[in-house]
Amino acid sequence: MFMKNDTLKLMLLSIFVDEWNVFTVPMLGIFLIRYFNADAAWTGILTGATLGGAAIGSILGGIINDSLGRRKSFLINNIIFIIAAIASLFSRNVLMFTVSRFIAGFPVGSDIPNVYSYIMESSSPGKREYFGTMNTEMATLAILSINSIILLMLLIHLSKIIWRLVIFSSVIPNIILLINYNRLDNISVNNHGYINFIKKLRENNLKWHATLYSWICGICSSVEVSTFAFFIPYIVTRLHIYNIIGSRIIILLIYAFGVPAGIIGPLMLPRLGLKRLGSYGFIIAFISLIGSGLSIYLGRYYITLIFMVIFIFGNHWNNQPLLTAQALVSSREYRGTAIGLSNFIGNVPSFLAVLAFPTIVSIIGLGIATMLISIASLTGIIVSSKVFIEIYRYTESF
C-alpha cells in the first residue's frame, strides 16, 4: 500500500530534480563558457534559460495541474525533463543548448504547483509546513551532487565530459519518479482561472497579505539566488584564490552549509513561525551581501568566503516560507493556479537578473554589483515584517 509518507518522499525527490535542472548551468558555468566560447551576454542567457522556461511553466503548469489532475501533470513533467536532457546532450552549439535548457525549465516551473499541492493534501498542519520548507534542503543536495560529479571528473582528468555527465545523471531520479508515478492519487479539480482566483483572494485580508508576501518576497529571494547564489562558482573561480580543483572544493564546502541551513529552518518553525523565519533570513542575507561586496571591492577575498557561507543560511531561511505560505492559504480548487502564479512572479525578475548580472559586473565591478543585490534583501526585510501575517498551522482555505 502506498502511504502518504511515500507521497511526501516522492515530492521531495521531485523538488530535487527541479533544483538539479535549475542549478545545472550555474554550477557548470565555467566549463560551458569555455566549451561554447560564450561571452558575457551569452553567459547570462545560458544561465537564465532554465528560469525563463520555468516562468512560463509556472503560469501554465498551475492551470494544467488544476485542470488535468496532479498525476497526469506529474507524468508530463518528467517526460519533458528526459527529452530536454537528451536534447542538451546532443547540442552542437550554444543556441541549441540554450533552447534545450529553456525546455527543461518548463517542467521545473510546472512541477512546483504540483508538488506543493500534493504536500498540502497529503499531510496535517505542522507537517505540511515542515515538508513545504524542505525545498532548500533538496536544492542543496542537488547542488552538492552536481559539484561532487564535477570534482570527481576533475580529479580523474575527464573535464571534457563533465557537463554531459551532469546532465545525463539528472535523468536517473526522473526514471525513479516515472516508475512510481502511477501510485500517486490523481487529484483533479475544476479550475476557473486567474480572475476568479484573485477575486476570491481579495475577500480575505489574511490570505491577501500572505499572497502579497509570497509574491514580493518571492521576487526578493529569487533575485538573491539568481545573482549571488547562482554565480558563487563564477565568483570563486574569478577571484583566482585557488586552482580549478581547489576552487571546486571551496565551492562544494560553501554550498555544503546549505545542509544544516535546510534542516534547521523547518525545525525552527514551531518556535519562530513562518514570519520570523523569513524575516531573519532576509536580515542575514542583507548583512552577508554587504559584507561580500565590500570584501571583494577591498580585495579581502578570504573574508568573502565567510560571508558566502553566512549568505547560504540567510537565503535558505528567507526562501523556505514563500511558496509554503501561498499553498497554505489556497483551497484545493485554486491551489495549483495560486502556487503557479506565485512561482511565475518570482521567476520572471529572477530570469531578468540572471541575464543582466554578468553584464552589470563587467560595467561596475563584482564588488559593487554584489552590494547592489542587497536592495532585494532590504525589501524582503520590510515586506516580511510589515505585510506578512503569521499563518503557521493555518487550516482554513478559501
UniProtKB/TrEMBL annotation:
Transmembrane segments: 12-36, 42-63, 75-95, 138-156, 161-181, 212-237, 249-268, 280-313, 334-357, 363-383
An example molecular function term from Gene Ontology annotations: carboxylic acid transmembrane transporter activity
Keywords: Membrane, Transmembrane, Transmembrane helix
Major site of localization recorded for this protein: membrane
Cited SUPFAM superfamilies: MFS general substrate transporter
Topology of the protein relative to the lipid bilayer: Multi-pass membrane protein
Localization in the cell: Membrane
Major facilitator superfamily (MFS) profile domain location: 7-392
Record bears the keyword Transmembrane helix: yes
Entry superkingdom: Archaea
Signal peptide: none
Record keyword Transit peptide present: no
A Pfam family that the UniProt record links to this protein: MFS_1
Database matches in InterPro entries: MFS, MFS_dom, MFS_trans_sf, Sugar_transporter_CS
One GO cellular component term: plasma membrane
Protein's name according to its UniProt entry: Transporter
Biological source species: Picrophilus torridus (strain ATCC 700027 / DSM 9790 / JCM 10055 / NBRC 100828 / KAW 2/3)
Top-level taxonomy: Archaea, Methanobacteriati, Thermoplasmatota, Thermoplasmata, Thermoplasmatales
